[in-house]
Specification:
Length: 305
């Protein structure tokens, strides 16, 4: 027989944003806005050594963190896989609070990419939010470490297992973190350089790859400190600077050039985090006041007569 005096079912509170919450999560009521990655340069400039587009590989990597989200990519220049095309169909709608989130695939502030993204969004009339780039972020130092290790310039393990003295003449004894994008990019590269130095136990300094005088000054500073085998580690995905230009810079200043970051699962995770940051900032709920809380129910909380 049904008990008419039973307590009403307990309603679970809505999940709120907070410091103990999974940073990759977001409120379900927001739906799933599209994630659009803005790749600097043209499609031809953004091909890796295997001929695959960096944007396509990054989309696959981000999908591992966001399988429920529509993921697109577009280039800021050229007609092939353009950003204008990726922003299609994202106009404002009353059925959704936001149509998409644009994540620029740059590791630091980049004026050219920012301007191209703003123009493309305005021309498309897209209802999107544009996030910061992928850096500065602590995981960038880890990706740079991996690229240097893959090239044989440093050991892959962390500082606690590394001797400050290089094992052989192929190991780097000083690193230049190369930035592209101006003063803001160099500042972001400086943060990455500090973190990378802590990982390697070597002197690591930032420099603007578009300023030869700055590179010469930084390399000279490394040599004055006893560095004999400097390596330029570009903190870029790849399209920002041609590979032959990077190699020429390294040869000119008696250094060796590392490889660009390219598509990497850690960079995909940063892109997913940038996406989540926007949605969480829009979906934050204020804690209810005492007047807004529901009244207690049950025999122990009957109102006084």
């Amino acid at each position: 027989m049904r008990n008419s005096d039973r307590l009403p079912p307990r309603e679970l509170p809505k999940r709120r944003s907070g410091r103990h919450r999974n940073p990759l999560s977001f409120d379900n009521w927001f739906g799933t806005p599209a994630l659009i990655m803005a790749v600097p340069g043209t499609a031809e400039q953004a091909r890796d050594a295997d001929g695959e587009l960096i944007g396509a590989r990054m989309a696959d990597l981000v999908r591992a963190y966001r399988p429920e989200v529509t993921i697109r990519f577009g280039h800021t220049e050229g007609r092939e896989h353009s950003l204008d095309e990726a922003l299609g169909g994202l106009e404002k709608s009353d059925d959704r609070p936001l149509a998409g989130v644009v994540v620029p695939l740059v590791t630091a502030p980049h004026a050219g990419t920012s301007a191209a993204v703003e123009t493309a969004v305005a021309e498309a009339g897209a209802d999107v939010r544009v996030t910061e780039g992928l850096g500065p972020h602590p995981m960038l130092a880890e990706v740079l470490h991996l690229r240097l290790a893959e090239a044989g310039f440093v050991r892959a393990d962390r500082m606690r297992l590394i001797s400050v003295t290089a094992r052989n003449t192929t190991m780097a004894d000083g690193v230049v973190v190369g930035a592209v994008g101006g003063e803001g990019a160099v500042g972001a590269a400086g943060v990455t350089a500090v973190l990378l130095a802590a990982r390697l136990g070597l002197t690591v300094l930032p420099a603007d790859l578009e300023n030869e005088a700055a590179i010469e000054q930084v390399v000279s500073q490394l040599r004055q400190g006893g560095c004999r085998r400097p390596v330029i580690a570009p903190s870029v995905l790849g399209p920002e600077i041609p590979a032959d230009q990077l190699a020429d810079l390294a040869d000119r200043f008696g250094a060796r050039a590392g490889t660009p970051l390219g598509a990497d699962s850690l960079l995909g995770k940063i892109a997913a985090l940038r996406y989540a940051e926007v949605l969480n900032s829009l979906g934050v709920e204020q804690p209810p006041t005492a007047e807004e809380l529901p009244a207690p129910v049950g025999s122990r909380h009957r109102p006084e007569s």
